[in-house]
Amino acid sequence: MRMSRNMAGTVFVFGALSLTLTALAYPTMLGVQNSATDPDRVVANTPHGPLTEGDRDFVVKVRSAGLWEYPLGEMALERGTTAAMKEAGKHLIVGHAGLDETCRKIAPELNITLPNQATPQQQQFVATVSASRGKEFDSTAVNIMRVTHGQIFPAIAKVRASTRNRLVRQLADQANDTVLDHITVLEKTGLVNHDQVNFQQTTPPKLSRDQLTPPPPQPGAPLVALSPRPDLNVRTDAPAPSPSPSG
């Protein structure tokens, strides 16, 4: 059977993506599981409930996730080659602007220092996607983000189930809705390679802590804020069902 040029291009993109993801590993919320030395240790008693290492790590990692996924959303909105890709970009921008606002609001109440830069791995993901063009850009961006969002879910659930801090619990609720929305719009692009994504979600390589940790902000540096975009007119709290993998 003769393989079409489009199919051949798709196979090439997914093959290259597999190598890229293996080399760069998985950023974003994996730090929730790996960077806290004792997630259950209480580090502060606040008016909103006890704050554990895991709680504190979660707030930092939600912030860090926005610092790389928001720029990817902007790239998708500007450079995506399909309407579905541009729509996914809108949801990434709006969703992470909302989460970022919550992080910046609760961090001072919990005495948490927020980063101004994403982790080294997350910055590399942005660079990798930025270097691609056309359909390759769409496929690379979608599949990288689908893997990382799939990894986020268990981390959010673990924090939501265990935290005794009211503000962290509210952030986990919001993060869960936002991540589900992002997974949904990414799948609606029709570009998710589900077999490859599922494999990579369940076999993440081991990374050193410094690769999972965002650099601390410079002393006295103003806190970077992800700009809200009400002009995009999308909601990220109640996603419509996505098509099945075979659809």
CA gyration radius, whole angstroms: 18 Å
Secondary structure tally, helices: 9
Judging from the principal axes of the Cα atoms, what is the shape? globular
Which parts are unreliable, with pLDDT below 50 for 5 consecutive residues or more?
1-34
Mean pLDDT over the residues: 85
| Main sheet makeup | 2 strands, antiparallel
* H and E string: HHEEHHHHHHH
Largest beta sheet: strand ordering: 1-2
Helix fraction by DSSP (H/I, runs of at least 4): 55-70%
Number of strands: 2
Counting helices, strands and paired strands, the structural category is mainly alpha
Strand content: under 5%
First CA to last CA: what distance? 23 Å
Task: State the gist of this model.
With 247 residues, the chain is mainly alpha-helical. Helix content is 63%, strand content 4%. It has helices at 5-24, 30-34, 53-79, 83-110, 120-130, 134-162, 166-187, 194-202, 209-212; strands spanning 42-46, 49-52.
Question: How would you describe this structure to a colleague?
Answer:
With 247 residues, the protein is mainly alpha-helical. The protein has helices spanning 5-24, 30-34, 53-79, 83-110, 120-130, 134-162, 166-187, 194-202, 209-212, and strands at residues 42-46, 49-52. Strands 1-2 form a two-stranded antiparallel ribbon. Helix 6 packs antiparallel against helix 7.
